[in-house]
């Protein structure tokens, strides 16, 4: 009874240690810790388990985490404000660029030309004023860029009537441009939706943000799941390697204890077996080669090769005789110098033809034999 109680206590202690290690590995995923490190350093494992109650998985305390979240919210607000103005500015620039491209292919109505000229001039003036404001440092006497002031730049603004007309028309034009960009984005996300009606596109466009958000959440959940699977795989690999090392030790002890005494005789038998098998294989290869030769060179083929050889020998003799005649003529006319270059070229051609036919005769002779 006492032994069973002791075993239950040890098992519960092991379970508690395993849970503690799992808690530490889960609480500090960014640390490159393994279960083996925690087993070898139990006090360090307890320290990390205590720290996990006061810090999050990134190592930040609760107070610092709240301050960081507050700063991130403020930064997000500032970023959203900047993105709002920056996106409108870029949209207006895109509208001006598209109008310039259309203008190159053909002019539009005068009202449209006036609208885009006024908008472009206003944007340029506003950008110049912003650069002047950014270049000036408060509390210092510094000459502005090119000696210009904001008042001088504002003097280049269009007339108040043109600006008022431009502002009246700008929301509708901006809405058209945004609608066009939204439809292009929708066609990029789902190309098969491009052929649908405008009303259906508007309905699907209103749901596009939800679809993208759901895909983003799905991607985040898959990333988190992959991280958990990687951690689980790491623990399983460690456990598997530990068991494998134990099995290897047991196997090594068995091999050392029960190894074969007649290993030499067994190796000799194996060598004889492989030698006989190799010899059989060589005999099969020779038989296949002979069979291939018999199938390739039949009696008809051999007689045809002989006829071709006889014909080539006859042609070779005729060419040799012709060569001798040409050589004798060439020797008799060598004294005349360059006037007989044509004869020398003919001699070279015949020599080349003789070499070619000699090679062909040699090849047929080899295959016939």
TrEMBL record:
InterPro entries in alphabetical order: HAUS4, HAUS4_met
Any one GO biological process: spindle assembly
MF (Gene Ontology): microtubule minus-end binding
Pfam families named among the record's database cross-references: HAUS4
GO cellular component: HAUS complex
Name the record gives this protein: HAUS augmin-like complex subunit 4
Organism name: Chanos chanos (Milkfish)
């Amino acid at each position: 009874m006492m032994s069973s109680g002791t075993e239950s206590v040890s098992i519960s202690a092991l379970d508690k240690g395993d849970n503690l290690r799992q808690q530490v590995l889960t609480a500090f995923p960014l640390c490159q810790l393994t279960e083996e490190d925690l087993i070898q350093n139990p006090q360090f494992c307890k320290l990390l388990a205590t720290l996990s109650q006061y810090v999050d998985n990134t190592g930040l305390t609760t107070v610092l985490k709240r301050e960081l979240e507050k700063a991130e919210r403020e930064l997000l607000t500032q970023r959203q404000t900047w993105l709002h103005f920056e996106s409108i500015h870029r949209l207006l620039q895109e509208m001006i660029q598209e109008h310039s491209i259309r203008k190159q292919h053909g002019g539009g109505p005068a009202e449209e030309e006036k609208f885009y000229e006024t908008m472009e001039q206003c944007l340029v003036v506003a950008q110049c004023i912003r650069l002047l404001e950014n270049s000036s440092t408060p509390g210092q006497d510094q000459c502005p860029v090119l000696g210009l002031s904001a008042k001088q730049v504002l003097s280049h603004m269009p007339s108040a009537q043109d600006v008022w007309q431009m502002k009246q028309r700008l929301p509708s034009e901006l809405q058209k441009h945004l609608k066009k960009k939204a439809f292009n984005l929708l066609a990029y996300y789902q190309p098969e939706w491009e052929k649908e009606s405008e009303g259906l596109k508007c309905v699907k466009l209103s749901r596009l943000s939800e679809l993208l958000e759901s895909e983003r959440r799905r991607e985040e959940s898959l990333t988190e799941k992959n991280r958990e699977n990687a951690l689980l795989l790491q623990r399983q690999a460690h456990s598997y390697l530990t068991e494998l090392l134990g099995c290897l030790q047991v196997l090594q002890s068995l091999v050392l204890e029960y190894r074969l005494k007649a290993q030499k005789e067994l190796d000799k038998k194996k060598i004889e077996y492989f030698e006989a098998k190799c010899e059989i294989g060589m005999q099969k290869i020779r038989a296949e080669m002979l069979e291939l030769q018999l199938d390739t060179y039949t009696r008809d083929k051999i007689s045809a090769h002989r006829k071709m050889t006889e014909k080539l020998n006859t042609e070779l003799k005729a060419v040799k005789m012709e060569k001798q005649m040409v050589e004798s003529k060439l020797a008799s006319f060598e004294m005349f110098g360059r006037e007989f270059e044509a004869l020398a070229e003919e001699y070279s051609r015949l020599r080349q033809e003789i070499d070619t036919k000699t090679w062909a005769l040699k090849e047929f002779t080899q295959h016939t034999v």
